[in-house]
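BUG: 3D viewer hangs when loading the predicted structure for this chain

Environment: internal workstation, default settings.
Expected: structure renders.
Actual: progress bar stalls at 90%.

Input used:
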Amino acid sequence: MYHRKKRCVIYPKDIQLITGRSARHAQDVVAKIKRLLQKRSDQYVTVHEFSDFSGIPLELVMQFIDD
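Structure tokens produced before the viewer hung:
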């Protein structure tokens, strides 16, 4: 039986679906999180980091990105 693993990375498209905001806004959110956490542009933002930043409970975020 094949078990699909959950992602630990969040993408702008996920943020767009969660918040209902535009793609541009979602890209800005990712950029802001990276700046605040002093990440390089080639590094990823995790669902935990997005949850902490947005104040949206992790369990709720995971419901949106579970494939």
